[in-house]
Design a protein that fits this description.
Layout lengths: L2 H5 L2 E2 L6 E2 L11 H14 L1 E4 L6 H9 L21 E4 L32 E8 L7 E5 H6 L3 H7 L3 E4 L1 H7 L7 H6 L3 E4 L1 E3 L6 E3 L5 E4 L4 H15 L5 E4 L6 E5 L3 E5 L11 E7 L7
Parallel strand pairs: 2-3
Antiparallel strand pairs: 1-2, 3-13, 4-15, 5-13, 5-15, 6-12, 6-14, 7-8, 7-11, 9-10
The structure holds N-oxalylglycine and manganese (II) ion.
Manganese (II) ion binds next to loops.
Length: about 290
């Protein structure tokens, strides 16, 4: 890869996102291509690769060039050889398009697996079937949002810790309450409200639908502030809204973005199916 490729990249919004130069992701990347991807990932946070046609195996192989694959919290029972590649869809338990699909929680602002001690580093979605219009994925740049906080708020938030949990996710999304077994399997974790990106050193607001409360504050006071900060991050100026095209593969950095799916399509009539891989992250220092 050379300068021409860098020039071929197109920024998609002021908040992040870049359309990558033409590359065939079904083949192993060269070292310069991998470096181009790594650099663009840190600079633009959301990478859009157009016109891909990847089998599940090929998506897993592409993903593994950038880190260790993470298992899905809900295991697939389809006997597929690649359980780390799972399907995100708007289908209900009967396989029908639905207003309340199994992945209902994806329609709220979140960063992937923030209810784990080691939340996901990156997530990759590959469009398999798309509705005729809509069904965007939105990304909020939580680093830009942090930067634009007034100085006194940055200082007031500097030492706050936030509890994230699967149980809170179920409560906040008005989903079926977490079972005792789920609570045992996924106990609450605590993360700083202001997270430092381990590679860029930039600070971000670390909030979203998996948050329960702020340590030392009441549930009520916590919810108010956490929701206010999530709304703050979700202002237009910090958001890139991805309009899916057939063949898109989108890879994003969970350490400096929140995301959500948008219900702006005929959810109960048209299918929206994406294949998903995730790269494991590290402990977040306190
Ligand atoms: C996800 C997710 C959003 C979407 O796969 O982690 O949140 O647009 N997906 O489907
Ligand atoms: Mn997600």
């Amino acid at each position: 890869m050379n300068d021409i490729s860098v020039q071929a990249m197109r920024r998609l919004s002021a908040a992040g996102g870049v359309e990558m130069p033409a590359m065939d992701l079904s083949k192993p990347l060269s070292e310069p291509e991998k470096q181009l991807v790594r650099d663009a990932f840190l600079e633009h946070h959301i990478l859009v690769f157009r016109n891909q046609k990847l089998s599940k195996e090929a998506q897993a192989a592409f993903t593994e060039q950038f880190g260790e694959l993470e298992d899905h919290v809900v295991r697939q029972h389809d006997g597929s050889k690649t359980p780390q590649v799972h399907t995100v869809s708007n289908l209900d338990a009967d396989g029908k398009p639905s207003y309340k699909p199994l992945t209902h929680g994806n329609y709220f602002w979140h960063t992937d697996k923030s209810y784990h001690a080691k939340p996901s580093l990156a997530t990759l979605l590959h469009a398999i079937e798309l509705p005729t219009e809509g069904g965007n994925t939105q990304f909020a740049n939580t680093g830009l949002a942090y930067e634009s906080l007034p100085e006194e708020r940055k200082q007031a938030f500097a030492d706050l810790k936030v509890v994230h949990s699967w149980e809170a996710n179920r409560r906040n999304t008005k989903n079926k309450p977490a079972t005792e077994e789920e609570k045992r399997e996924r106990p609450p974790v605590t993360h700083p409200l202001i997270r430092t990106h381990p590679e860029t050193g930039k600070k971000v607001l670390y909030v979203g639908i998996h948050t329960s409360h702020i340590v030392g504050k009441s549930m009520e006071e916590s919810r108010e502030l956490l929701d206010e900060l999530a709304d703050f991050c979700a202002q237009d100026e910090f958001v890139y809204s991805h309009e899916w095209q057939p063949g898109d593969l989108v890879m994003w950095d969970n350490r400096t973005t929140m995301h959500r799916a948008i219900a702006n399509y005929s959810m109960n009539a048209e299918r929206r199916i994406l294949h998903r891989t995730v790269i494991k992250g590290d402990d977040i220092p306190h």
